[in-house]
Amino acid sequence: MGLDFSVIPPFYGTLALGVLWTIAITATSAVLSFFGGILLAVVALYGPLVVRLPFRFVSWLFMGTPLLLQLFLIYFGLAQIGVDLPAFVAGVIGLGFHYAVYNSELIQTAMVAVDKGQMEAARTLGLSRRQALMRVVVPQAVRDVLPPIGNNMIALLKDSALVSVIGVSELTLSAQLAIGRTYRPFEFYAAAAVLYYVINLGMEAVLRGFEKRNRLSR
Amino acid sequence: MTQTHPFVEIRHAQKSYGKLEVLKDISLTVERGQIVAIIGPSGSGKSTLLRAINDLDPLTAGEVWLDGLQVNKALPHRQYENHINEMRQQIGMVFQHFNLFPHLTVRENVTMAPKLLKTISDKEADTLAEEQLDHVGMLERIDYYPSQLSGGQKQRVAIARALAMKPKLMLFDEATSALDPELVEEVNLVMKKLAEEHMTMIIVTHEMDFAASVCDRVIFMDKGLVVEEGPPELVFKNPTQERTQNFLRKHLEGAK
Fold this sequence. Notes:
Number of strands of chain B: 10
Main location (chain A): membrane
Largest sheet of chain A: none
Order of helices and strands of chain B: EEEHEEHEHHHEHEHEEHH
Oligomer: heterodimer
Protein name (chain A): Amino acid ABC transporter permease
Domain ABC transmembrane type-1 (chain A): 19-207
Low-confidence stretches of chain B: none
Subcellular location (chain A): Cell inner membrane; Cell membrane
Helix content of chain A: over 70%
Order of helices and strands of chain A: HHHHHHHHH
Low-confidence stretches of chain A: none
Pfam families (chain A): BPD_transp_1
Strand content of chain A: under 5%
């Protein structure tokens, strides 16, 4: 059976919807992983022990186990004990927290590396520790690790394909739907790959924009 | 009590790190509007003493008072945090390495603390920034980032940032030590200007000429003790203590 890409156009709509869902779940998870990462980092470094230890445990759980398994656990596992989350929400929680943990590791390292004089100067002006952290230390730490956080976000985009297994009709699942109707796996998986690549390019452009805005402020 | 108290008072300040005693029972007072220089060899404890005044380096024992209030009052943790934040708003500090916030513009550096801590509008904040930056001659750079400034300019912005909180007392921790020689003067001029406006200042410095020309009183510290203190003409011209004489001789030789 030869290749025939003319099977694709009838499924433009399906694929386009898949692209939209992929962007939606990636963007939502990215935002959650970014702010979650900051929160986890601050708690890991400055939180009281009673909060720090459970946070550490959850971090370890998210880092030390497969993302696919986490998605199963959040979607199917929680449903079994009565927490019935929509697939999209379960996907965002899984992806978002998974990458929040990775972002938090980066942000923690950068926070420790921010010059001690910054905290001192802020405290000297009368800022509370929390204000000094959120206004002075965290923004500089985040700025310093924006490129590696960007890499995490691109990994997140690619891992978003995993949520197809819990039934979020994102790009990969859309391609599979089309394949189910046409028995043309090569054409549709290739089309999905191209579309992922294009989303990736767009995402890199957005990230570069953020980094450029930060160039002067160091 | 109607008894008058000194504006700044340090009572029996002691500080040790393990067995190392950095400050050994130091007491001193500074009157309102006075300008006091603290000089001494490195390791003498002068920066530690300065940093104890706003509790950046808490004392092991002893008290610090500002305008009738104890800065390092013993309070439960939460209350102490609120208390010290309020006290610190009244005490400006300028550091050797400027410590400007690199992620903020000059304007934002100046307005961040007033905006967060005093309920002022954006417009008032802008006016405040313009006033303070004009005062230190940095108004033209108001929308620059610190990375675009020279060391002397950074330090002048740092002074404006401290002054924007309208402090009662200014602490200078070797404010010109990290500067290229040709940039020292612009910062000294700003400090002189503050002196003329009768800002109370405590200045840790290595610059004897500046201390002599600006300060009302000079305190010479060595090994955690105040060895000698008095008006600059006395301490610099006729020091009575041998340690002061040695220090000044070495310093003058070094300057040549």
